[in-house]
Amino acid sequence: MDFNPAYKNRIKRFFRFFLKYTYPTLYRLELKHTHLDYIQSKTIGSKISPKANISGPAQINDSEIGDYTYISINSRILSTKIGKFCSIGPNFFCGWGVHPTNTLSTSPAFYSLKNQAGITFSKTDKVIENLPIEIGNDVFIGMNVTVLDGVKIGNGAIIGAGAIVSKDIPPYAVAVGSPIQIIKYRFEPTIIEKLLKIKWWDFEEKDLQNVEAFLFDIEGFITKHDKS
């Protein structure tokens, strides 16, 4: 018999309650293994390419993740569109909402119906709490990075480990730190312009061998594929 998830959770809670007061030793042993509940990835309202690779634990809500992108362990992603061929390190936090700063209180108990504080005194949602985030294609993001709501990260950009991305990052920029700073660009402007026109990340899979073949010969790759 295939039980629905809510019924399964009720059975699990009853089982733990029974163990706790009847067989406390077994209860402690069972708790030791409940971490399995938390290392599983949870996805709600999201579109994830079957060619993407998500390492658990991860929580992905209302987001989109493109082909060949990998996301490392312990990621929390909300309201974010992530392109193709992105490489995202562990402990990635993205899109966890905003608090108003020009109000009497910053607590969502006074402006939100989501009950984040366990109670709400508001009859309506008074502010927009989540702004969409866009991460382009072929973006490399190091470990322990936080991306704030409403930010756009361009194609080919690199975000250094530990950064807090609080503003838009242009294509092929290398940005680090908190506050985030652009320290350089990966290529000269003319090369960046041509790569953005070629859009190799949209190649058919059979043509992606061209990227591998010219991996260290960017000018050769542009010569072969630039139609302008």
TrEMBL record:
Going by the UniProt record, its keywords in alphabetical order are: Acyltransferase, Repeat, Transferase
The lineage's top-level taxon is Bacteria
Q: Which Gene3D superfamilies would you find in this protein's record?
A: Hexapeptide repeat proteins
Concerning SUPFAM superfamilies, the annotation shows:
Trimeric LpxA-like enzymes
Q: Does the keyword Ribonucleoprotein apply?
A: no
- Repeat among keywords: yes
Query: InterPro entries, alphabetically?
Result: Hexapep (IPR001451), Hexapep_transf_CS (IPR018357), Trans_hexapeptide_repeat (IPR050179), Trimer_LpxA-like_sf (IPR011004)
- Return the similarity comment: Belongs to the transferase hexapeptide repeat family.
The protein in question is named: CatB-related O-acetyltransferase
